Amino acid sequence: MAAPGIDQRRHPRVAVADGTLVIGESAYRLVNWSLEGFLAEGYDGPLVTGQEFALTLIVRSERGEVEVKGRGCVVRRDPDAAGRVAGTWQLEYPSPHAAAFIKLFLNYDGITI
Q: Would you say domain 14-105 falls under CATH 2.40.10.220?
């Protein structure tokens, strides 16, 4: 187990000005995301750490809009911190083209992934 405060992410997170995490019929504000992770707030549902679920990530930016469907897994819940939920995600239908598109959309210019 890593020491508190040590970032164990494999990919850099990108702040999201206009994004949504959809779980079931409910939508939550997406705070940031990466090629394999996300942080959202406003979550008050029943998911627990380690639980897998279907998700949709919707991100709008100056580069356009992307909607990604996939599977998520809860890594952390912070119900006292604005209902924050952090997790990992993977594409529902992975392909090299989809990953390349998401890297471009995430604006990973100059970052080796």
A: yes
Domain borders along the chain are 14-105
CA 17 centroid distance within chain? 13
H/E segment holding residue 100 = helix 96-105
On the question of pLDDT at 16 being above 50, the answer is yes
pLDDT band at 93; cut points 50, 70, 90: confident
Token reading at 32: 């940031």
Give the separation between CA 78 and CA 112, rounded to whole angstroms: 30
What pTM, to 2 d.p., does this model score? 0.78
What does the block give as tokens for 29?
């504000």
Q: Confirm if 34 and 14 have CB atoms less than 8 A apart.
A: yes
Q: Exposure pattern of 6-42 as b/e (b: 16+ CB <10 Å)?
A: eeeeeeebbebeebbbbbeeeebbbbebbbebbbbbe
Instruction: Give the CA dihedral 6, 92, 22, 42, nearest 10 degrees.
Output: -10
